[in-house]
């Protein structure tokens, strides 16, 4: 049973526009959420995180929104740049971020010029 | 920033042999090390969690006698795949957690068992 779901395997966005990546989770014990960017044959690169006590966290072009009641989070990238093309993973943890991470299957973001 | 060095990046081994993967935290002390694997077109799956000086805790379905984890120091953890078989071919990644929190990932190891 997939506890973290990224239902869009891929997303194509024009350069300069907003990219919105979505993630849903089922485990109500999750209280810490992260987004990672990953290239093939490399480890994930941390982008941004959010604790369940917040509903928004912003870092430069990246903003993560958390809707606890809907068990949904999203990553907004604006403006999108060609270098943003990669696979993005949503991950969740229980225990305030002390436990191992549960990952979604990833969304392949393609930024078109 | 925090860096985790993982070696080797690629390894090909014969079926029945053992392979050791190392992860070192270069500029911080890794009190906890997580080991993941990723099969093609799948998400990263947590295999086990190890705290320095303690036995590793394995996720359901992961054989502890097959995947030996050693975390003898605060800067080094190893995963040994024993008696490897072709179905163990996967991408293995470590993630270290220090006293200040956060998860720092290694660059991964592509294991191919022939």
Please name the two chains that share the biggest interface, counting residues whose Cβ lies under 8 Å from a Cβ on the partner chain: A-B, 21 and 27 residues
Strand content of chain A: over 45%
Sketch the topology of chain B as an H/E string, one letter per element.
EEEEEEEEEEE
Q: Terminal Cα separation of chain A, in Å?
A: 37 Å
Strand content of chain B: over 45%
**What is the string of SSEs of chain A from the N terminus onward?**
EEEEEEEEEEE
Low-confidence segments of chain A, given as residue ranges, are none
Low-pLDDT parts of chain B are none
List the total number of helices of chain B: 0
Kindly state the number of beta strands of chain A. Answer: 11
Protein structure class of chain A: mainly beta
Class of secondary structure makeup of chain B: mainly beta
User: In which range does the helix fraction of chain A lie?
Assistant: under 10%
Average pLDDT, all residues of chain B: 93
Q: Note the main sheet of chain B.
A: 7 strands, mixed
Helical coverage of chain B, percent range: under 10%
What topology emerges from the helices and strands here?
The complex is a heterodimer of chains A (about 110) and B (about 110).
Chain A: E1 4-5, E2 10-14, E3 19-25, E4 32-38, E5 45-51, E6 56-59, E7 62-67, E8 72-77, E9 86-93, E10 102-103, E11 107-112
Parallel strand pairs in A: 2-11
Antiparallel strand pairs in A: 1-3, 3-8, 4-5, 4-9, 6-7, 7-8, 9-10, 9-11
Chain B: E1 4-7, E2 10-13, E3 19-25, E4 30-38, E5 44-51, E6 57-58, E7 67-73, E8 76-81, E9 90-98, E10 101-105, E11 109-113
Parallel strand pairs in B: 2-11
Antiparallel strand pairs in B: 1-3, 3-8, 4-5, 4-9, 5-6, 7-8, 9-10, 9-11
């Amino acid at each position: 049973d997939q506890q973290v779901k990224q239902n869009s395997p891929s997303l194509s966005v024009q350069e300069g526009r907003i990219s919105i990546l979505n993630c849903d989770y089922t485990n109500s014990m999750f209280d810490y959420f992260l987004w990672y960017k990953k290239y093939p044959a490399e480890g994930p690169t941390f982008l941004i995180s959010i604790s369940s006590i917040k509903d928004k966290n912003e870092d430069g072009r990246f903003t993560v929104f958390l809707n606890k009641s809907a068990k949904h989070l999203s990553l907004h990238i604006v403006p999108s740049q060609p270098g943003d093309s990669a696979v993005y993973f949503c991950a969740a943890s229980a225990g305030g971020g002390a436990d191992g991470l549960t990952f979604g299957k990833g969304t392949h973001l393609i930024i078109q010029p | 920033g925090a860096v985790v060095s993982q070696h080797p990046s690629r390894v090909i081994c014969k079926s029945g042999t053992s392979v050791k993967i190392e992860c070192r935290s270069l500029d911080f002390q890794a009190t906890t090390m997580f080991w993941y694997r990723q099969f093609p077109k799948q998400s990263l799956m947590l295999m086990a969690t190890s705290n320095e000086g303690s036995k590793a805790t394995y996720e359901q379905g992961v054989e502890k006698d097959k995947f030996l984890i050693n975390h003898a120091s605060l800067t080094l953890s190893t995963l040994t795949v024993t008696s490897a078989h072709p179905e163990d071919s996967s991408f293995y990644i470590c993630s270290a957690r220090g006293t200040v929190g956060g998860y720092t990932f290694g660059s991964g190891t592509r294991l191919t068992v022939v």
